[in-house]
Amino acid sequence: MNRIFKNKYAMGMLCLLFLFSCKKDRIDNVTTTISQPILSAPANNTVVNLNPSSNAVVTFEWNPATTGNYTLPFYKVVFDKESGDFSKPVYTGIPAKVGSDNKLSLSHKEMNKIAAGAGIAELASGKVKWQVIASNGVIAATSGAGIIELKRPAGFAENPATVFITGVASEGGTDLTKAQSFKKISDGVFEIYTALSAGSYKLVDKITGSALTFVIDAGVIKQGTEVTSPATAKTVYRINLDFNKSIAIFTEIESVGLWFSGYNKIQNTLTYDAAGVWKAIDIPIVWKTESWGKDERYKFRVTEKDAVGTITVKNWGCSVKDNVRATSSSPASYFLLKEVDNSQYDYTYKFAAEAQKTDIEFRLQSTADYTHKVTFK
């Protein structure tokens, strides 16, 4: 019985070896062909003025390759700098319909990234090469190389996801762990309320690991190591960045006032503390006595000065035009700030109470919603 089992086992192993051997022979003997794809559009040396903020696209097309065993060819399109050999392409694209599409459409935003990867600077023009690789899974064929000229606008091709300010002139000094973050408004657009002193500062896209460093030079965002602060003494600014256009705007915040509707004027001026927060400590809150009762409405007025010295007054209040009085159970959303008009009574808040000692905080912080806080003592 034992001998029969051993013989069956041996015969089984021989069959398996035979099958593997046959399979290997079949793979080794597979023969197929694939023709070279031929580029058809865009024509060589076509010039494209890139507009990354638009919906415009560039479509790359080629005549389809054919295979000897009638399988569908698969394509990829590679891009390289004009002097490159495609061994390290700057971009690889795959058609939307794998196996059937013989075209690739890329947005101007994506083409701007390709141009930057090929070493074409902002506001400059340069050429990139493109090539199609067709494959049927066994062998591949490559097209010739096409040339396209790209003209880049101002702005970064790749916008940072986060931005921080650091350096001697910044509030956090040179300690990266204390660098202040900008508030992200939209893709490539950031804002911060912060103070700068004399000295140098820089912007970085991260505070750990390898970071990109940016500077602001005459209102233009550039890559660089550090730059001199515009302030000779501690000055509070709103700094707006737009990496899509490489634009930076400094606006000096001259004052923040607590404005009472009943008195129709600023009753108290808040002092800048740090990290986008202004405070007034131990101030009296006295409602305005009217013939019909007392008026408890208030909002904030902020005086700004731009780079050429023009003064602007902005009002910060509530999104509700005719508000209710605050209570101890008012939600956090009640105190949120937004820019409003300069009307005397509309879009105001209402103090919950009168008090001889009250702390007010006006918070334009990058890490949270713009809001304010009232503490009665």
Description:
The protein has helices spanning 2-28, 108-117, and strands spanning 38-41, 46-49, 57-63, 74-81, 91-93, 103-107, 125-135, 140-142, 146-151, 164-166, 180-181, 183-186, 189-196, 200-204, 213-217, 220-223, 227-228, 235-242, 247-260, 265-274, 277-285, 288-290, 293-295, 297-305, 311-317, 338-340, 349-350, 355-363, 371-376. The protein starts with a helix and ends with a strand. Strand 14 and strand 15 form a beta hairpin. 26% of the residues are buried. It is mostly beta strands and 377 residues long. The protein has 3 domains: 38-151, Immunoglobulin-like; 164-245; 253-376. Strands 12, 13, 18, 19, 20, 21, 24, 25, 26, 27, 28 and 29 form a 12-stranded antiparallel beta sheet that branches. Strands 2, 4, 5, 7, 8 and 9 form a 6-stranded mixed beta sheet that branches. It is elongated and about 95 Å long. 10% of the residues lie in helices and 44% in strands. The chain is built from 2 helices and 29 strands.
